[in-house]
Every structure is written in structure tokens, then in C-alpha cells.
Task: inverse folding
């Protein structure tokens, strides 16, 4: 159909247009850049853009979306000066390549488990960045990081650098709040709602106790644990979760 | 979408008794390995038998109730192996199931048999039927089964690679197979990796989660364990210092002598085959064309064997094409696969149901979200749950955007194969990157999205993300597809190189179980979104583009047309999603320790490459008992030889490009 070669010419027209548009785009960019500070590209290019735009990594970087996920880290509660992790083991169970190792702390006298990890390893050579650990953690204690430039010098023990231990994994919750603002605010709201609910339940209970004629002493004793319950790292939901997890692992 | 999974109808005692003897005679052979294995998995006791669909009832009526009996859960059992070919010929010719969608096997170690499962389907659409046969596992764990299953390659050409895979993974012998060699592992591999009593190196346990991780989980690097310890299996008498083998001897010999499975002599070469001589030592004396006088005016050409790949830009990964050339013309072609084999299916059987979702991303890594959808809807069917409305829309938007970006990629690299080096490819990769930006902002990752969950998805779209999707779907991508067509469709060089190249007519395509754009370019309007609708595709207005040239050019045109149709679906979904409740993305409570009721299912979706099927068997536990991936890239490769023979070697590259394979899915 048509004259021989028109198809090629039409195609060449497209490449020519790309060529010109790209220069036009560059010109705009250079004029923009004449200011003092380097403009940071907010996205790869706008959908209206017609030319080719290159983000010149590592000189320029695109901002990472909040949901971006890379090798996980452990959240340290700066307010309570404590790990958020209770070593319940759910992250180790949902981990598809099984790259999480946790040693649970035991009370030296009673030998009962203490809700705190003694050791915590993530083998980043195995981790597939799927994000399950962060998604299924009931305590918001493990989160996916934004730090994607992990590389180490092959010094004495190259493997050891890629196996992140607890000290390497732990990061303050302020860092978590800075990279995941939406999630952080939702967690705060959830926690506030939960505490309000607990408080309301405790008050209702206290009222019910008070309503009983003979329960004067009990009513006075009951509300006391309610404020205390919020202080150690959330002992309320942790026990049932652990029991649940135990059940899960035994299959 | 899938066949019925569990069947609540109670088994009739009479039929149950009839089915049982088939399993009986082999139990002594299997008793030992079964006992040696720690308890964990077991095929369910006294499973309910399937109720027969009209087609299967007709089959039973024709062959008699002693040959065709209902199988547990789904489908029928062919009790007499010698009748299998008759049954399948009847299924193909009389019942119209002209396409063998899937063949796989399951190792029922406790019962002592291997079950081969066939899923024939109609190219006109509808659900596949399930036909099963059983072979005893045999007494020698490293030898192939004593009882052979008749190969179905004369009836369905598409069975060739799948039967080879079953032979490779389970050691099931197929009688009458044209080239029964190992396909994913190498010649000389010790054992049958998907059998339940085969353990991989560094074996830790049959099922995850492993006990060593918590509560006393001291980290240990797998690499630091002694590689020559008891974590690796060697054949008895194996001497690593004097190991010397040529795993390709069988491959070359079958190409040179034309005799498949020629007995291998002490030198590692087939005995009947003439010893190659001369330069390159690959030229067969018998294959040389010793010309008669009449041929003497023509250019004299030698036959040579050329290895293309595994490290070759034109093979789209680590595929190796071994082509026999007469001058520049391809006279024979064989594939050496498995360079990317990691036994995805064995990993899948160790994993819990949830663990498998991120692994499916790694099958066809160009369109991970489509793979997740296939797995998730199959498991949902078995669990009997339904995702929420909003999740359905989000899944469709993601799956169709995946199709667009995958086709951009396929067309870009097809043009690379044609010699238009990287200009078109990079134009389209730009568009693809914009779609991946959306994936990244929603799911957190560009390729390995891990987005779908049983009963929903992991994250909702925010308003910004919806706006981003709308900008792409309504403005940018339509414009870019127009530009793509302007750039390529009428180009005379492309037309000259592609029209009539790689021709494979419709009947042959169906017989080869070809699916996806390649089948639709041969004039067969087969698309699972219409043929056996899943998810909410029945709500959208879209067409199945069909072209009739059955060549590389039409495969290209089908892909362009499909991108436009996918765009229509995304646009409709983006318009309708406002009617759903934001945030309502997960049906039921979010859980990580799913238990799937005992049963089996074959679920499939239309990925950009073709039909992606998952055949799953559950024993009611936390882990799949069998996890099989019916991969379209792998099965489409069956037809490559017939498409290529007779063309020039430069066209072999283009024809492979038009099949659009991804090695992550081919080798699994």
C-alpha cells in the first residue's frame, strides 16, 4: 500500500520528533536550573512530557514513594527507651525465604520468656524484600527500610556485613516516622483508639463494680491496673498472639 | 476459572471400592520410603470422588465403567494404561477437547503411586476436564518407573516438553516419546527432584516455617556448611576427582544421527551415531550432502551445528538453541533448557500457601502481578472465599497495566531482534517505567510487587495514585501506542522481515498447546478472559483481537491491538472503582497461617504470554502438597522447531522473539 518507503519515512518522523522534543525539554530544564539550588526531580517525567528525560542517578534521585520497601529494620521506641519487638516470632514464620533468626530472651530465674529479643538476625543475602514481616507484625516493631544502597567492602568477613544483627537492624521510631509519615500517623491513631477503648472498658468495669453494693474495695482496686497496662511494651495483646503463633508453628 | 475443587457429594461405596484396587498392588514398594519420611504430608484418607461432568460421563459410557472411574475430588481415572491413547483420541476427536492445556504429575508417596494428570480443553472455550492415570513408583528410587505411560505426543504435540518435564522431575517413563531426555536438569542428574523422598542440598525440613528460626534461632550461613557433607546426594560409587561427563552428548547425537535415545557408549557418545570428524567435529558424515551431478552447479553447503546461547542477547535470557544449519537455512532445532532452573515447584511445596505469592512474581518477572493473580484466584477457589469489590477492581487494573507494560517490552525487544537496535525498545521502556512507577508507589516494588493476597490486595490506591493511573490510562499511553504504530506498523523493512516468517497454522498451533498472542495471531480467538472468565472480566466491554497471518508480523499486531483493549479495560475499571468503598481491600480477617481444605484445583489466567495455570493439591495443611505451574512460555517453545525449520538462521532469532518467552517462567 502506498509508495514504497513511506512507512519508513513516517517512522523516521517519529524519531525526529523525539529528538527535537528532547532538546526542547532540556532547554526548559536548563532555564529552570539557572537558580541557585538544584531542583530535585519529583517524578520521572510528567505524563504531558514529550521528549526523553533522564534522571541522572546518583547526582539526581527520584524521591522514594512511602511504600517503597527494602531490607527491614527494627523499630526502637524512643519514648519508652525499649525495643518494640516482643520476639513473638510471627515475622520469622511469615518470612518466605526464612531469613529471620530470633533468640527469645528468658528470665534467668523463672526461665519464662521475656517479651524482648535477645538476638535478632536478618540475612540480607537471602531476604527477598517481600515485606511480609512488616505487614504481619502485630506490634509495628519491624518496618521496611528506604535505604537501598547496601554495599560493603569485602574486608575480613564479607558475609558478616550482610547478615544484619540486632544492633545493625535497630533504628529509632523517629526514623520510621520520617520515612513513613502516613503509616506512622495511622499507627498513632490506632494506638490512641485502642487505649481509649481500653480505658473506656476499664471505666465501664469500674462503674459496674461500683454499682454493686458490696464491692467498694474491689472497685477501688480495679481501675489501678488500667493506666499501668499501657506502660510495659503492650503486654495486653502479646500473650494471645504468642499462643496463636505457637499453634501455627506446630503443624 | 477453575474446575470445581472439593466435592461435597459423598462417595458411593461401590465406586470407591472400584477405584481402590488401582492403588493397591504397589504399596509394598512404597512402604519403605514412606516410613523413612517423617510424618507431615499425607494424601487425605478416603477423599470424596468427583461427580462427573456430562463430557466425562459420556467418556465413561463409551469406554465402560471398568476403564473410566471417578477420581478423588476432580476428574476421572483411566485404569488401563494401554487404553490411554484411545481415551485421549476420543477426547480430542469426539468430545472436541483439541488442546492439551496441562500435563503434570503428583507423587502420592504413601499410596505408592505417581499420578499423571492431564487437563485437555477446547480451543472454543470452557473449562478443561481432568483425566488421571496412575503408575507405581517402582522399587528403585533412582531408576525411571518400570511401568511406562503411553506418550501422548502423537495426539497432542504440546505434550512433548511437558512429558519430558515429568520424566525429569518424577522419573515417569513415557512410551513412544520422540526424545525422552532430561529437560530442566542435566543429563546425569541423580534422582527425581520432585518426588517427595528426594531432598535438596542443605535440606532443612519438609515444610516451612523451619523450627531452627525461633525461639532459639542462631544464625548460620548455609554457605559455611560443608558442601561435601551429608547435605548433598551422590550416586553410589561417584568419584568427584575423576568425574568426566559430556551432558550434551545425547543432545548432539540425537541431532546428528536422527536416532533418539541412541544407547550411549563408553566414550559418552551414541553408538549408532557416526563419530564426527574434521573442523569443529560437529559435522556428521551421513548428513553431508554428497551431491549428484545435477546439484553441482548449486552452491555447495555444509551442515553445521551452531549453539545460540545460553549467553546470547537474542535468546532473551539463558536459553540455548542448538540449530542445525544447511548453509544459512535451519534444518533442525533443539532447545537446551534449565539454565535458570531452581525447582520453583519444590520450593512451592516447602512454602506455606502465603509464602508462595512473592515467589510467583519471580516466574515471569516481566509481568509478576499477572502471575500473582493466577495463584491467588486458584487458592481462593479452593478456600471458597471471594475478594472484595474494590480488590477485584484493583486486581484488574494492575493485571491489565501489567499486560500493557509486558507487551511494550515484548515489542521493543522483538524490534531489537530485527536489528532496530534499542531505539524502539528504549522508547517503550520509558512508558513501561512510568507504569512501574505506579506499581512502586502502590506496592513498594517495581517488579516483585507481592501485591495480591487471598481475599484481597495488600494496599489500596490513594487519590494521588488513582490520578496517576488515570493520567497514564486516559492520556499518556493511548498517545504512545499511536506513536508506536506510526513508528513501526507500516515500516517496509519490518514487513519484509516478518510477514510469512514463523508461520504455524491454527490447527498446528492448537495441537501444540500454543496460547496467548501467538495463538490469536493464528486466527484462534482463544483468550481465557472470555473463554473461561475469572475475576470480574465479565463486567467490561472489550474485544479479543484476532489476526489470521499466523506469522511474526501478526503476532506483533495482536500485541498492539491487545494493548488498546487492555487500556479500555483499565479505563472502565478506573471509572467504576469510585463506586466501591475506599479501604475495603481485604475480605475477612488478614491471616498468615491459612489452611486450605483438602482437594485440588486447576486455575488459570490469561497473562501477557498466554495461559498461566496453577495445579494445586492440598492435604488440608498449611503447605501445598503439590504446586505445579503450567507456564505458557515453556509450552509455547514446543512449537519453535516447526516454526523455524526452513527459515534462515537470522529469522530463528526473530521467531523466538515473537514467542515472547521469559526464562524465569520457562525454567522455573
Result:
Amino acid at each position: 500500500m502506498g509508495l514504497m518507503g513511506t512507512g519508513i519515512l513516517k517512522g523516521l518522523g517519529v524519531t525526529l520528533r523525539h529528538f527535537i522534543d528532547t532538546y526542547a525539554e532540556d532547554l526548559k530544564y536548563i532555564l529552570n536550573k539557572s537558580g541557585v539550588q538544584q531542583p530535585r526531580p519529583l517524578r520521572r517525567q510528567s505524563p504531558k512530557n514529550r521528549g526523553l528525560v533522564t534522571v541522572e542517578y546518583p547526582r539526581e534521585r527520584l524521591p522514594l514513594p512511602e511504600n517503597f520497601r527494602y531490607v527491614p529494620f527494627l523499630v526502637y521506641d524512643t519514648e519508652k527507651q525499649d525495643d518494640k519487638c516482643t520476639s513473638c516470632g510471627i515475622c520469622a514464620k511469615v518470612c518466605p525465604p526464612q531469613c529471620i533468626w530470633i533468640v527469645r530472651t528468658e528470665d534467668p530465674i523463672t526461665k519464662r520468656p521475656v517479651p524482648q529479643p535477645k538476638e535478632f538476625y536478618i540475612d540480607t543475602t537471602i531476604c527477598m524484600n517481600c515485606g511480609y514481616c512488616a505487614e504481619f507484625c502485630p506490634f509495628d516493631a519491624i518496618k521496611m527500610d528506604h535505604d537501598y544502597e547496601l554495599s560493603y567492602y569485602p574486608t575480613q568477613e564479607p558475609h558478616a556485613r550482610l547478615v544484619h544483627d540486632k544492633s545493625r537492624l535497630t533504628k529509632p521510631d523517629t526514623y520510621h516516622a520520617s520515612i513513613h509519615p502516613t503509616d506512622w500517623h495511622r499507627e498513632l491513631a490506632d494506638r490512641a483508639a485502642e487505649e481509649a477503648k481500653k480505658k473506656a472498658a476499664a471505666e465501664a468495669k469500674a462503674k459496674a463494680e461500683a454499682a454493686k453494693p458490696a464491692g467498694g474495695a474491689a472497685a477501688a482496686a480495679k481501675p489501678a491496673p488500667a493506666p499501668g497496662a499501657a506502660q510495659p511494651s503492650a503486654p495486653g495483646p502479646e500473650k494471645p498472639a504468642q499462643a496463636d503463633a505457637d499453634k501455627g508453628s506446630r503443624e | 476459572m477453575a474446575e470445581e475443587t472439593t466435592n461435597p457429594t459423598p462417595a458411593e461405596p461401590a465406586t470407591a471400592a472400584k477405584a481402590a484396587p488401582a492403588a493397591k498392588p504397589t504399596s509394598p514398594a512404597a512402604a519403605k520410603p514412606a516410613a523413612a519420611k517423617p510424618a507431615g504430608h499425607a494424601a487425605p484418607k478416603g477423599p470424596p470422588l468427583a461427580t462427573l461432568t456430562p463430557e466425562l460421563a459420556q467418556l465413561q459410557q463409551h469406554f465402560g465403567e471398568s476403564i473410566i472411574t471417578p477420581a478423588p475430588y476432580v476428574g476421572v481415572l483411566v485404569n488401563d494404561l494401554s487404553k490411554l491413547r484411545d481415551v485421549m483420541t476420543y477426547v480430542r476427536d469426539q468430545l472436541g477437547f483439541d488442546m492439551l492445556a496441562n500435563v503434570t504429575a503428583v507423587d502420592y508417596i504413601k499410596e505408592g503411586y505417581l499420578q499423571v494428570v492431564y487437563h485437555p480443553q477446547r480451543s472454543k472455550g470452557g473449562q478443561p476436564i481432568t483425566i488421571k492415570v496412575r503408575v507405581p513408583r517402582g522399587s528403585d528410587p533412582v531408576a525411571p518407573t518400570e511401568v511406562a505411560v503411553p506418550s501422548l505426543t502423537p495426539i497432542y504435540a504440546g505434550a512433548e516438553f511437558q512429558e519430558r518435564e515429568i520424566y525429569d522431575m518424577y522419573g515417569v517413563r513415557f512410551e513412544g516419546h520422540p526424545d525422552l531426555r532430561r529437560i530442566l536438569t542435566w543429563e546425569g542428574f541423580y534422582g527425581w527432584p520432585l518426588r517427595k523422598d528426594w531432598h535438596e542440598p542443605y535440606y532443612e525440613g519438609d515444610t516451612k516455617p523451619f523450627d531452627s528460626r525461633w525461639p532459639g534461632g542462631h544464625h548460620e550461613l548455609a554457605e559455611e556448611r560443608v558442601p561435601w557433607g551429608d547435605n548433598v546426594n551422590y550416586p553410589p560409587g561417584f568419584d568427584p576427582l575423576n568425574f568426566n561427563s559430556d551432558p550434551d552428548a545425547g543432545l548432539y547425537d540425537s541431532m546428528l544421527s536422527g536416532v533418539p535415545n541412541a544407547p550411549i557408549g563408553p566414550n559418552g557418545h551414541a553408538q549408532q551415531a557416526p563419530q564426527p570428524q574434521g573442523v569443529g567435529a560437529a559435522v556428521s558424515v551421513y548428513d553431508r550432502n554428497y551431491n549428484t551431478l545435477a546439484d553441482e552447479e548449486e552452491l555447495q553447503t555444509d551442515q553445521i551445528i551452531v549453539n545460540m546461547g545460553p549467553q546470547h542477547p537474542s535468546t532473551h535470557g539463558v536459553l540455548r538453541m542448538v540449530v542445525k544449519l544447511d548453509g544459512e537455512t535451519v534444518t533442525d532445532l533443539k532447545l537446551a533448557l534449565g539454565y535458570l532452573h531452581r525447582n520453583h515447584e519444590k520450593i512451592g511445596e516447602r512454602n506455606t500457601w502465603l509464602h508462595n505469592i512473592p515467589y510467583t512474581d519471580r516466574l515471569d518477572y516481566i509481568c509478576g502481578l499477572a502471575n500473582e493473580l493466577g495463584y491467588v484466584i486458584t487458592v481462593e477457589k479452593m478456600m471458597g472465599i471471594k475478594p472484595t469489590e474494590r480488590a477485584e477492581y484493583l486486581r484488574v487494573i494492575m493485571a491489565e497495566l501489567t499486560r500493557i507494560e509486558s507487551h511494550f517490552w515484548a515489542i521493543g525487544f522483538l524490534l531489537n531482534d530485527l536489528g532496530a537496535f534499542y531505539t524502539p525498545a528504549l522508547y517503550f521502556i520509558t512508558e513501561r517505567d512510568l507504569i512501574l512507577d505506579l506499581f512502586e508507589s502502590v506496592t513498594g516494588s517495581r517488579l516483585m510487587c507481592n501485591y495480591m493476597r487471598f481475599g484481597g490486595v495488600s494496599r489500596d490506591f490513594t487519590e494521588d495514585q488513582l490520578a496517576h493511573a488515570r493520567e497514564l490510562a486516559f492520556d499518556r499511553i493511548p498517545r504512545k501506542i499511536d506513536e508506536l504504530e506510526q513508528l513501526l506498523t507500516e515500516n517496509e523493512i519490518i514487513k519484509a522481515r516478518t510477514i510469512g516468517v514463523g508461520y504455524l497454522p491454527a490447527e498446528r498451533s492448537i495441537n501444540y498447546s500454543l496460547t496467548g498472542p501467538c495463538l490469536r495471531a493464528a486466527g484462534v480467538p482463544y483468550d481465557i478472559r472470555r473463554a473461561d472468565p475469572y475475576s470480574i472480566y465479565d463486567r467490561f466491554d472489550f474485544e479479543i483481537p484476532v489476526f489470521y497471518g499466523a506469522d511474526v508480523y501478526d503476532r506483533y499486531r495482536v500485541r498492539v491491538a491487545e494493548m488498546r483493549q487492555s487500556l479500555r479495560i483499565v479505563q472502565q475499571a478506573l471509572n467504576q472503582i469510585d463506586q466501591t468503598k475506599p479501604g475495603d481491600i481485604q475480605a475477612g480477617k488478614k491471616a498468615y497461617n491459612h489452611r486450605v481444605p483438602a482437594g485440588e484445583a486447576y486455575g488459570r489466567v490469561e497473562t501477557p504470554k498466554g495461559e498461566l495455570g496453577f495445579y494445586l493439591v492440598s492435604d488440608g495443611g498449611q503447605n501445598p502438597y503439590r504446586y505445579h505451574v503450567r507456564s505458557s512460555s515453556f509450552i509455547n517453545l514446543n512449537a519453535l522447531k516447526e516454526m523455524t525449520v526452513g527459515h534462515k538462521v537470522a529469522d530463528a532469532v526473530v521467531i523466538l522473539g515473537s514467542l515472547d518467552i521469559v526464562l524465569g517462567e520457562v525454567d522455573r
The first strand of chain B starts at residue 68 and ends at 70. Chain B has a mean pLDDT of 82. Residues 344-667 of chain B form a domain with the Cytochrome-c3 Hydrogenase; chain B fold (CATH 1.10.645.10). Chain B has two domains: 13-175, 344-667.
